[in-house]
User: Fold these one by one.
Assistant:
Number 1:
Amino acid sequence: MKLKKPTLLLDKQKCLENIRRMKFKADRHKLIFRPHFKTHQSAGVGEWFREVGVDKITVSSVGMASYFSAKAWKDITIAFPLNMAEIDDINQLASEISLNILVENEAAVSFLSGNLHSAVGVFIKIDAGYHRTGIAVDDHLAILELIRKIEKSAHLTFKGFIVHNGHTYHASARDEILTIHNQSLEKLSHLRHFMLQKRVDAIYSVGDTPSMSLSENFENIDEIRPGNFVFYDLMQQKSGACQFSDIALALACPVVAKHNSRNEIVIYGGAVHLSKDFIQDKNGHKIFGLVVELLPTGWGTPVDDTFVKSLSQEHGIIKASDHFFKQTKIGDFIGILPVHSCLTVHAMGEFVVLENNPEKTELKLCCM
Amino acid sequence: MKLKKPTLLLDKQKCLENIRRMKFKADRHKLIFRPHFKTHQSAGVGEWFREVGVDKITVSSVGMASYFSAKAWKDITIAFPLNMAEIDDINQLASEISLNILVENEAAVSFLSGNLHSAVGVFIKIDAGYHRTGIAVDDHLAILELIRKIEKSAHLTFKGFIVHNGHTYHASARDEILTIHNQSLEKLSHLRHFMLQKRVDAIYSVGDTPSMSLSENFENIDEIRPGNFVFYDLMQQKSGACQFSDIALALACPVVAKHNSRNEIVIYGGAVHLSKDFIQDKNGHKIFGLVVELLPTGWGTPVDDTFVKSLSQEHGIIKASDHFFKQTKIGDFIGILPVHSCLTVHAMGEFVVLENNPEKTELKLCCM
């Protein structure tokens, strides 16, 4: 394939290994594996999950649920608080597949009671420390009250509790991730103990990729829903959740200019391709991507002392080592490992799959 | 129109006023007005420019040029350094319209000399202080050398110099913007003086929205290429380049949760809708958007002491005043003024036009 402009490359082998590794872990711990499909948003990648036996998935919007439902996924959890304005689409989905939705307040449950026409499973969003959404994990009475309300509604079946410890994404080391995860499990075990006393049976579902990648402790957990692990990215690598060699995506970008006086390389590849998420190095420099050399069937390890220092709409500016600056020519294509693969995939809307055989397939994202 | 999910609203009246104001300024100063279409990327908004007499435009990619060429725009400058890999598309465009491209190095000129089949106008990118791309404005000899090389090439016609002072976007006050602009003009006047001595006739083209909005000094300038002004955004408002009332876009978002203990409102509206650009308030808090109340034909001024404090893929978290927290209900739609309209428009891919009459039209973005 001849590259023309910024193109997102997917290394199929790395991706398959990431999928298999997580599937094996789920099996080893006897966990329901319900991977989050918001990172790849692709029917084609979805099939790779299906091939290892996955039949339950998580998505983050009603539109994504509709897309995957049309691709024969029949057991979907929408892990996002109910958006009442989409009730018609939810009713449509609920009549076709086994659908779980997320609530965290009585307003949502009341609305569903009055507006649902088919059976829907309900998870309650629990906040175990991230403080983005959910009922506080230790507010047992409020949680129980919501369950009782759910149980009274004709079309709602209480399924369990969903936790997402998104603060692990900003952890700087493995220990920090494991501490967050273990503290969360402890709080959930108190919740489980309370709920057992109240004869409430529930699925306890956790999700973040860093904890799911690093931990072997899943005590009192029934289901895992990681998503990012399918591709990983620099944020995950920095936190210790993966190695550089696990990152399955690179954005191929044309070199369009070089500036000798400041060892900077300008690429066609900007915020509309990579997104504006960044990590910081130990000196506090913002890093919007690391640079890899493109090979016929993949890419190498990150080039030393070389990184994307800034992004504007279509421009990326690379601060390069002397060596890399010298060897790089205007017109070359170089690879950029993304900081946050979920946003890069969404920004690009499609990727090209690199396989061991020379035939390459383009998988389109779903339209949302 | 019934809103279902995050929807980008465009206030047509505000947008038309922004367009007319900039067109009048260009006319008043006898400047060629070649607006940058990368902010709106829309054939429909393009027609509003055409209605006030605009027939020359700027774009930032070959794909965007092809899109607008197909919409009957016949004089287009691609203000991005040449991407050699797109030479076939450039040749196609050059055979159809009056096309200008951007170069900043001999590699690009040599490549074009060997690969172009039709006449193309060439602008040289000049760096007047932003240090992203371009030849240093005071490196007169290097610039002249590149012009001589362009002049020797059969299909290339040297047109002039393009400057983009993108550092004005990060200015914190009007004076800072005007200082950058005036220093740039002074450097360009030295360049012009030198070039006149060498009998080089050229168009001097400048571009950034902050300077174009605030300055009345266009001495020695022939052409302006602002883009963002068509919609403006919070970054521009913060720098003094516009008022809140000039911002022509708001993202309508459903409220999906409220957290009383921390006065936080959760909206369906995240990084995939708004992008991750932020501004900082005087206390150093990151602001990813300001909140407005939606009205039948538009929206109000920003709600006091209320802002988007964080974004994840689909979630936005609003830190709300007591008053706004109390009055907002789960299921409401509220408006978010974007920090960076170019990236929000690109992320959303489409917007809904609010007009005075109840008929509303949806304009699709170009596909790139």
Number 2:
Amino acid sequence: MAKTNSVVGVPGNERINALNDGVFAIVITLLVLEIKVPDIPPDLVATELPHALREVAPKVLSHIISFLVLGIYWVGQHNMFMHIKRHNRVLLWLDILFLLCMASMPFPTGLVVQYGQEQISVVIYAGTLIITGLTLDAIWWYASHDHRLVDESMDPKLIAFVHRRVLLAPLIYLLAIGVSFISLLVAKLLFVVVALLYILPNPLDHYHHSKLHEQVTVWD
Amino acid sequence: MAKTNSVVGVPGNERINALNDGVFAIVITLLVLEIKVPDIPPDLVATELPHALREVAPKVLSHIISFLVLGIYWVGQHNMFMHIKRHNRVLLWLDILFLLCMASMPFPTGLVVQYGQEQISVVIYAGTLIITGLTLDAIWWYASHDHRLVDESMDPKLIAFVHRRVLLAPLIYLLAIGVSFISLLVAKLLFVVVALLYILPNPLDHYHHSKLHEQVTVWD
Amino acid sequence: MAKTNSVVGVPGNERINALNDGVFAIVITLLVLEIKVPDIPPDLVATELPHALREVAPKVLSHIISFLVLGIYWVGQHNMFMHIKRHNRVLLWLDILFLLCMASMPFPTGLVVQYGQEQISVVIYAGTLIITGLTLDAIWWYASHDHRLVDESMDPKLIAFVHRRVLLAPLIYLLAIGVSFISLLVAKLLFVVVALLYILPNPLDHYHHSKLHEQVTVWD
Amino acid sequence: MAKTNSVVGVPGNERINALNDGVFAIVITLLVLEIKVPDIPPDLVATELPHALREVAPKVLSHIISFLVLGIYWVGQHNMFMHIKRHNRVLLWLDILFLLCMASMPFPTGLVVQYGQEQISVVIYAGTLIITGLTLDAIWWYASHDHRLVDESMDPKLIAFVHRRVLLAPLIYLLAIGVSFISLLVAKLLFVVVALLYILPNPLDHYHHSKLHEQVTVWD
């Protein structure tokens, strides 16, 4: 391990992980806590409450979507850092940029839910997620390139597989920006497709798993 | 352990636990921080302050209840994860859903405290807690079924005991929804019963403890 | 260690500590973040900004006091848990009550800073801190009594020393409530005395240290 | 290690680190979450949304700057605590003061972005960062002086190097306060210079690295 000298290997990545988990925990919690109990004058409660609850519904939807998208990135970063064994200043800063993206995601999501009929909302949403995806891939590129912060023995095929899996989302979001000039509905359907692709176990993964199975820790 | 291959066993569950603790810490803290010092013009402080403090009281009550109910789930999840030794993508997602439930609990609690005279509040509250309980049980089912993520040696009786203990709450909440069509007061009393059942040490636990005592880590 | 059977000793107290640190981190951060940049119309900035900043000052003071008082309890709980080696359901619940007290402290502190001329504010402040102190002492009593959750070898003198140190604050706060009927100023001075007693290294500590020095981990 | 007796060495610095990470995670997250989706009446969305988004832009800039400045301090504190092996009550309190500075940073940053044309904003900003830097240096001074909380074997040159690196920022901020009496623009450019100095890898670091390389864990 010729590179160990320029890498701070002790005490490992606990603190980066703690930071990521902290930011994720705060973002998802505050998202949901923002949904407030409506204030209704006592004499109108019986008639107004069901109506007020129905008005809260779209906000709830927006928050659940943010929640799931953030979940996808947390799981992705979680899995990535199972392979990254060491860190240095550059990785810390790439990770801080990634957290900046994570923390800002509620804003574009809110735009799409509230003003989804405007193309600018769809473009800002897709743009934010493209930047987030590219930052996550930059972390992987920096860590795995030349086996800088991963094990020397890591299979190049696994390294490439992670790149493909991470970059799939930004690619589809780029496509969605193009499509948004023709149909906003199709663009928004593409957002749902991305989410399903990452949450559901998919056959592509299983194909790769079976090929990489014998030689490396399984990327589940 | 035939299943180890498809399970990411390293670095263990530290990060899931950190995430759960983070979300719990944030939810309980923000609950209480929301209680603000009332703003009173200087010349009215002497006469208005006691009155203003009395108005804060029901909010305080609502927050203490949320706090205790969240505490019950944190303790439950904490104890459950003492037995879950490994994790994979499915467990991560089940846990993220559980956190979504935890984070949304202040909303239905607030509904019951502010609009407890409306059946819809009671139904939403019980419904949220049923979903939360079922999600927690799904985590246990997924982890313990076929000893997927728990030790091979775990006693099936302990597995069943945890299921019963976790599912007791959703059952009573379901009963409370039925009862709410007849009496809202009785339904709300059932909520208190559930809380006491989980906070107080209870004889059922001790019976099971004594039977399981010799062979497994004690489920306290 | 005859008690190990009824105690969950693995994986130790990491998660309780994580929860405490999380709550403390959130409370102190939100306290300070609440201080907002004043909004001033562009043409009035030059004349109004210094004035607006001076108005923020008392809020800043209130927050620094909360910050330090919370710091005292965090350091206290931190030191206490260096001696507590195991936990069980009762300890979890006592700790959750302690966190409830920690999280509510900004409210009484705000009362004293904004409405310090009213006795009720001083009584609520002292009362909250008495309950917090008693809860912290209850944790220690439960853990150390009969060496339930501490090492068998722990010196009874150290156990008693911790009790005295923890209970000193509630005692002075009780005194402050009595004094508040005569002089609010003296009562508030007692609050400052308590803070200094716990932040500054004090000779009483050193006396005890030197006596306990050879046989136990030093309580610093 | 003659000093070990007066130092609590177990369980190490995990909890201080957890607290720092928690506060940092919360501050950076809340900064970004504060940027809210604008509320626009349905019939005006098409015309008003682009305008409303442009108005959000300066706030976004302010938050990204806070984010990066906080990132600098987190990385700095992170690296410093790789060398600090033990802690005691004094270190806990110095660290709590450092966290107080970290948590208050959004306020002066907001002042500079909103009221950057007023000297008082620039002075408060630079003043806060001078205090933050001095607090961080006080941590290092206390820990490394006489090798109190660092390894006996630590090279005095490394100790001095860390001091120089940490104190560089307060020095430039002091210069910026002086310059602010002549030109606010130059003062604000100095703020940018400091940020770049700490984020970019710089030749001075490399020079020191190469000299310290053989004998100590590399300060990356």
